[in-house]
Write a structure and sequence with these properties.
Length: 333
């Protein structure tokens, strides 16, 4: 008969029998986030895109190219996030309340994927053209290499989560997918997609991106909570050397994103060019660094203050000294 008691030790571990009992809840932040995620549930067909179709015809070729490139990047990467969660995060998180949240997050990533499918199917897009938007460009290949490098670690059947190196591998991959892909690269695309609304265009697409971003804010909150909990429970990870490695991983990813944005906006579009987007990327990166307890790197102003509602900053913590309680979510508000 299976033993459904709580696993011994911390939030990291492995074994199908572990983490099958919800009570007593060990990580209230995870359960609170699950309940908030359920309350945020939405479906793409709640938003009609008829007016946006008319707006699309008003766009210049460069603007259409920018929109297509954003969609072509975000759409498949929602499923890539799901692979990272299903194979690289969920199997190593041994708390029922955290597994509940990860299950809801995986559904949300699928819902985001279907949201972009809804846009692709509604607009006069050629699917092959959409997915070929960045094909052959070194900047996109470099981003893919970064993602695959960390996904391969997650998928390695020999990953031993009980060793120091195994824990470091887990943290690196979690940062690569949660902080970098979801917290920086995705926000770059969201900003370009939402920029049209500033000119009273594609307002309903903007609404869908608002809803996606609201989900992503919770994903970030969960990921940072998970990082802080792992560090709190595994003090052997709390070294200056490892902290610098994590910081450099994030900064390396920023350089990849900056090159990609130059390819995405080679000529710029009305009110938006690669320098503008990259300043936003650097601003958001500083916010992510500060949220993890690091010093900011770029110290640049936010050029897109109209994105403020999508940029809710989490309470400041220290990557190696604070506990996860700084991130508890109050679902009664």
């Amino acid at each position: 008969m299976a033993d459904y008691t709580h696993p011994k030790g911390g939030i990291l571990g492995s074994g199908l029998r572990d983490g099958l009992s919800l009570h007593p809840i060990r990580y209230p932040w995870a359960y609170d986030l699950y309940n908030q995620a359920v309350a945020n549930t939405w479906f793409p067909n709640e938003v009609q895109l008829v007016q946006d179709l008319a707006d699309f015809e008003k766009l210049s070729d460069e603007e259409k190219h920018a929109l297509k490139t954003v969609i072509s990047y975000l759409n498949p990467n929602e499923l890539l996030i799901n692979k990272s969660l299903a194979f690289g995060i969920y199997p190593y998180v041994n708390a029922a309340e955290a597994q509940l949240y990860l299950s809801k997050q995986m559904w949300e990533e699928a819902n985001h994927f279907m949201t972009f499918e809804y846009i692709i199917e509604t607009f006069p897009f050629d699917r092959e053209e959409i997915y070929a938007a960045g094909f052959g460009k070194k900047s996109l290949a470099d981003k893919a290499d970064f993602q695959n490098k960390h996904l391969d670690v997650m998928l390695d059947p020999n990953l031993d989560i009980y060793t120091l190196e195994g824990k470091k591998d887990f943290v690196r991959s979690l940062v690569a997918y949660n902080i970098v892909l979801e917290g920086i690269w995705f926000y770059s695309g969201f900003m370009v997609g939402m920029s049209f609304r500033q000119r009273n265009l594609l307002r309903n697409v903007g609404t869908l991106l608002d809803w996606i971003t609201k989900d992503e804010n919770l994903h970030l909150t969960f990921g940072i909570n998970l990082l802080l909990t792992i560090l709190d429970e595994n003090p052997e990870l709390q070294t200056q050397e490892f902290a610098e490695e994590i910081r450099n991983l994030i900064l390396q990813a920023v350089e990849l994103e900056k090159e990609y944005n130059k390819d995405m906006l080679p000529k710029g579009i009305l009110g938006l060019n690669a320098d503008y987007v990259n300043q936003y990327v650097m601003h958001m990166t500083d916010r992510r660094l500060v949220e993890l307890g690091f010093e900011p790197e770029y110290n640049v102003a936010n050029p897109a203050k109209w994105m403020a509602t999508a940029n809710d900053t989490l309470e400041l913590v220290n990557f190696f000294e604070s506990t996860n309680t700084s991130y508890e979510v109050n679902t009664t508000k």
